[in-house]
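Hi everyone, sorry if this is the wrong subforum. Our group has a chain we'd like a structural model of before ordering constructs, and none of us has done structure prediction before. Sequence below.
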Amino acid sequence: MVKLDLIQIDRIIEMAWEDRTPFEAITFQFGLTEKEVIQLMRREMKSKSFAMWRKRVQGRKTKHIKLRDDTVNRFKCTRQRSTGNKISKRN
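Answer:
Right subforum, don't worry. Here is the predicted structure as tokens:
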């Protein structure tokens, strides 16, 4: 696994939570596979938060480029804005 600092870990968690950001974008930017992202999320998040996230992303078409509609050609929606929501993390 790649050595990451806290800022990078926070960004990966944020990208993993975003519905329109595929795992391939995280791989491209940070070099982590989908399996490594799942391990990171399990390690960094509270168990209930991880279970909720995992249930949400399993099989979601927008999280996997191969399942996406061909018209989507970017990682982030142009109308997407930062909500400022905090993600529940372990201390």
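For your construct planning: The CA atoms of residues 20 and 77 lie 7 Å apart. Residues 6-61 form one domain.
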